[in-house]
Amino acid sequence: MDDESWALSPNTRKPLPELIEDKIRSLIRSGKFKAGDRLPTEPELAQRMAVARSSLRTALQRLQLQGVVEVMRGRGWYVRSTDVSEHDEPLVFDRRVSDADLMEVRIALEATAASLAATRATQGELDDIAKLAKLHQSASIDDKDELLQTDEDFHSAVVRASHNELLDQLYRSLVPQLRGYRRNSYSSSEVHVRSANDHNQVTWFLKRRDEGGARAAMATHLLGLYSDLVAQTGTPPGERATLTTYALEDEPRWHRE
């Protein structure tokens, strides 16, 4: 494919990552890439578009959240869907909506998705979720981008395994709004260890097709992050969400290796 076809639009009013995103969309829409096709490597794409890899990665992550492309660890980026017209920009919430508000909705959404995934996920999806849990566990504590990406890959896989398209769309709208806080939350090895252990617990319940266990494990996992968040904002304990808020009176039966 000649480099000329990769030239970006001269529209300078858009940020560079959005111009890159538009170009990749147009290439998919034109039929140059079909569902399941592997995109050129990041260095190749960056060279062909004459852009920095950081801007390229941002564009690819935006497309990933919209369900257009997906990343396969160690293999690269692949086209997930060529129906790009249905994958509009993620919802942009009112700026008055706090991170705590978003997290409360995310807990309810992902707890439901985990419960559905426990009964609907294929064996292949369960195997992929287990692999993603291990990738997050082995991510370098010094690389916040890797920690965030492996974390998002795990959660995205669980939501997709619910086989509920609306849940998937809502999740992909929520995640970008919380990315800044999530990246900064990896401030210590303890946070990473807790996150990795929680992912393993969710995976354990999913493999056993335990709807209630998967739901409680996911809610408990996200409530840990939520508790850290509201503590920073000084929210009084009586106003914070708990397991009971989500109709869960007890913590899950934690599995010990």
Automatic annotation (TrEMBL):
Drop me one GO molecular function for this one.
Answer: DNA-binding transcription factor activity
Pfam families documented for this protein? FCD, GntR
Secretion signal: which residues?
none
Q: What's in the keyword line of the UniProt record?
A: DNA-binding, Transcription, Transcription regulation
- Where the record annotates domain HTH gntR-type, the positions are 14-82
Q: Which named protein is this?
A: GntR family transcriptional regulator
Q: Which source organism does the UniProt entry give?
A: Amycolatopsis thermoflava
